[in-house]
Amino acid sequence: MSIRIQDIIRAIDSRFTGIRPDMEIDNVSIDSRSLQNNAGTLFFALTGQNHDGHRYINKLIEDGVVNFVVNAIPIHTENKANFFVVDNTLTALQQFGAYYRRLFHFPVIAITGSSGKTIVKEWLNYLLSPDYNIIRSPKSYNSQVGVPLSVIGINGKHNLGIFEAGISTIGEMEKLEPIINPDTGILTNIGTAHDEGFESRAQKIKEKLKLFKNVKLLILQKNTEVEALLDPAVKTLTWSFDAEADVHITSAPSGSTTRLNISYKSDFEITIPFTDAASIEN
């Protein structure tokens, strides 16, 4: 990563004041304790109920950090560093993530659903890594903060991205979609997780589907409830154990494994080392 100050100013719609406007940044941080914080770090001073990144800026300046994205410049620091002043530092982090994503042009897979996001992501990484240099969400980095941090990890060696996105209420997915900007989507399932953040199940489905509004292909289990809420312009590949779908699957447990018979254009069979329903579905 090598991003010019002027490009950052525009990307996050900020007001700049500082001592070194000719610098470039080479990494991003939200953690004042990170050992990677240095002169090339762009530190986002995120705020929340129990934390405020602005409190650590003085110490970070002493440690050599120069560039800060802030809601307000802390007292006695104005002439000691570069400051990008914004209305909301989380929004700025998301804007920077979307800007950084646009610098790269390789296929990206996005995964959402009520459960199974992380395991599907890890299985895809395992299956595809022999053929691709993959950037993927670390652990379960699928939140409003985790998604931009995941995308900011892209470098010039990567040629495939796999990112997961999770939401807990309305208005969140539309912020994550431009950051991931996926070509292919995977919807794992729609369960009861985070129901309290939505007025209805239909509202939750609609919000999750916003991640896929620009994909070239969406892969999902055959589900008339979901498909009724899906933009008909989105191309889909559906699968099912019992309904008519593009891909039809039958399963047969055998000891500690399960044999899957799959019909898609032609018939073939695979064996997976799982017998529980959730793993078979994933």
Strand line-up in the sheet with most strands: 9-10-8-11-12-13-14-15-16
The major pleated sheet works out as:
9 strands, mixed
**Whole-Å distance between the termini?**
34 Å
**CATH homologous superfamily heading of the largest domain:** Mur-like, catalytic domain
Query: Tally the helices: what do you get?
Result: 9
Radius of gyration: 22 Å
- Classified by CATH, the class of the largest domain is Alpha Beta
Write down the CATH topology of the largest domain. Answer: UDP-N-acetylmuramoyl-L-alanine:D-glutamate ligase
Structural class: alpha/beta
The pLDDT mean sits at 95
Q: H/E element string?
A: EHEEEEHEEHEHEHEHEHEHEEEEH
Strand content: 25-35%
Helix content: 25-40%
Number of strands: 16
- CATH architectural arrangement of the largest domain: 3-Layer(aba) Sandwich
Overall tally of domains: 2
Shape field: elongated
Uncertain regions spanning at least 5 consecutive residues: none
